[in-house]
Amino acid sequence: MKRRKQQYNGFTLLELLIVLFLISVIIAISSVSLVSVMKASRLESAARNISATLRYARALAELKGRREGVLIDLDSKSFGIENTPGQKRLGADIHMKVIGPRDEEIDSGVYRISFLPSGAVDEGGSVIIWDDKRQYEIEPDPVTGSTVPGLTGPGRPVPGDQTNG
Q1: pLDDT at residue 165 above 50?
Q2: Cys-Cys with 80: which of 32, 87, 118, 163 at CB 3.0–4.6 Å?
Q3: CATH code assigned at 118
Q4: What angle do CA 100, 111, 123 make, to 5 degrees?
């Protein structure tokens, strides 16, 4: 009587180890890219928050019929509506400065952007935020006061960047 060779329908230990190794490599690569995507979204979110705060101050000025301002604390990297609680802070890896109306660069102290009851900017400037790869510029329109954060270019050097020295 001849013996029949038994067939196994399972996987060998070596095959399972190879598959587990490949899965771990894929997870490692995807987690690195996920971290960079999260950093980029934090910067974009901060730009949108600053823009929204400026728009809100403009709307308050029009609604209440008086000047309203946004205080930007460059030392603590925070911003918020003047005389209201709840300053918003930027992340530790996000840097901030202001370019004033006369193109002066301000990177410390407290800066105020204020809106008139008409919605126009009374005291203005551009808020620039950046991380190690990208930067956004938020500039209220002097006449209408409207703001839209603009990406000013990936990899573009930031004038006066003090983080590399």
Answers
A1: no
A2: 87
A3: 3.55.40.10
A4: 55
